[in-house]
Amino acid sequence: MFRRWWxxxxxWFRGASEKAMDPEVEIEMAIRQSQEQDxxxxxxxxxxxxxxxxxxxxIEDSAxxxxxxxxxxxxxLLRAEKAKEEGDDVGVQKWTSTAxxxxxxxxxxxxxxxxxxxxxxxxxxxxxxxxxxxRRNAHPRLLLENLFxxxxxxxxxxxx
Length: 160
Description:
The chain contains three helices and no strands. The protein has helices spanning 2-20, 23-86, 89-152. The relative contact order is 0.12. It has a domain at 40-139: Orthogonal Bundle (Helix Hairpins). The protein is rod-shaped. It is mainly α.
C-alpha cells in the first residue's frame, strides 16, 4: 500500500515538473515578467517626463523673477539718479540701498534660473533615455506575445 502511494506521489511530482517545464508555461511567465517590466519602465518614464514638465514651469517662474528683479533694480537706479539731480541726499541714499537690494535679489534669481536650466538639461536626457528603454522593452515583449499566440492557437487542418 505504501509503495502504491509512493508511486502516486512520484507521478504527481513528475507531472508537475513537466508542466512547469512546458514551453507554453515558460512563455507565459516570460510574457508576464516582460509586461511587469514594461509597466515599471512606463511609470518611470512618466515620472521623468512629469519632472521635466515641472522644471519647465519652474524655469518660467524663475525667468519672470529675474525680469522683475532687473526692472525693479533699474527703477531704483533711475530714482536714485533723479534724487541726485534734485539734490535729495536722503532720496539718493534710500534708492541706492534699494537698488543694491534689488541687485542681490537679481543675482539670487539668476543663480536659481541657472540651476534650474542645468537640472532641465539632465531631465531632458533622462526623459529620452526612459522613452528609449520603453521602446527597447516593447520589442521583445511583442515577440514573446506573438510566439505565445502561435503556440496556443489551434492549427488549421492540412488540406490534402
